[in-house]
Amino acid sequence: MDFESDLIKFLTINQLAINFASLPWILLAFLGVFVIANTLWIRSLYAAWQKDFGPRVSRFHQHSHSRKMPPHAQCPFQRGSVRERVEHTVAHANEIFARHERVKQRFPQTITPMPKNNESPRRAVHLDMDHQRVDFFDYLWAFYFIVPNAVFLWITGILRLKIREALRRVFCRRLGVRNPAECVDSGKIIGRLLLEGTQLVHFVCKVQKNNKEVATFVWTDFPMLDGNGKFRIAKILSIDIDLEKKCFEQGSLDGEPLAVNDALILVWFHTIFANHVKIHSYANWAANAQDHSYDAFQHRMSVTTIMYNYFGSTLFPRITSAWQKLGFSDTDFHSIIEVIEKGVSNGVPNHAGIRELVPHSEVARFMILVRTHFHHTFEEHKAEFPGIDAESLFVGTIMHSLDHTLMGWNLEDPLYLDMEGCDPRFRVMAELGRFVRAGFVDDLPFLMFNKNYSNAPGKFYKRVYRYAAKVNKKLADHMDCCIIK
To answer: What is the pTM of this model?
Structure first.
């Protein structure tokens, strides 16, 4: 018995010795696979970088679109065709035009002098969302420290959405469970989207109507997708909001009345695409990854902003096309490229008069107060931001991050976009709107670097945050120093 037990111990000890001896080789094999996989991955990224970024130049190159100053906001009512559309489709057009003239007199827009002889204009004529350059190692850094987080967010968000949609089709209808879109007040959501978000810029007037104070919002050359996913442009969208209830009053698209659920789809679609991409475009004047005078934090913020403009303009349409191949959708959303381009080319409407909405809008009050403080503070710190335009920095950081945050707060559930009961013309926009809300609105999880005003290292960011927190801490805590969602 002693001999057998000694033999067993001997064999066991020798087996463990063999296992421990082979452990370094196993680790070495895993390391080899890891190195080979990363080498192949980096080679593929280099090829993509050469294709998409190789021809690009830095922001201060003579051929860069953002070398000049950013364009002014536009006044669409100066165009005769737009005035005619408003006169034919909006009941109180005279009040809109009268207010427009008052705003022009009170807030005269700076006029850029006409260039002399062959001199080029000092300001860019139009916006361009995706044109700046980043070096390959910055591009590589983004794909290791940002892209995995973004992919995790949109994959988990969209899978959760598709599971919920499938459960609703298979079980909820049979059990008599109501459609989530029927359980909420869509009119209230529209009111929040317009009064508590960057759609404020489309406010055109306040009028007394049926003993109620009503705010009118107007969009001209409204880019959209039809029921087949094809790009089209509506001439004019008009929506009235009851300011006391902060709720949808009425709306029309090219003079045709809109149901409240349909109006929600259109407002949301414009919020996430044609309106939001203008903010991305202005952020190009707040970033330059080629300027090595920036400190490490500001350089990282510039790289992140430029890469996210690239993700949104170049990669997002490719992703949407892949959804059809993966079976997530029956529609090819590739025409969203044209919606983005039209949204950018439309520019930003002159919105100096949004002060009239301060009594009705928490966001309007916050933006106006913080913007004034931001510009004063930037003047004292502008030496730290060579080549950066103050207004573009405000738009590309504070306004962009809050636009995303407010999207999530205002439309809490993607299923509030009613694909079943909406006008068939708007079903594709509702579907795409659901995808975006599920996977592209919220903050990226598991980030490994600071990006908020609240924890940024520079004195400028700290001063702006302290003031903003006094105005509204809930909003101030969601201000980012770059575009990163």
So the answer is: 0.90
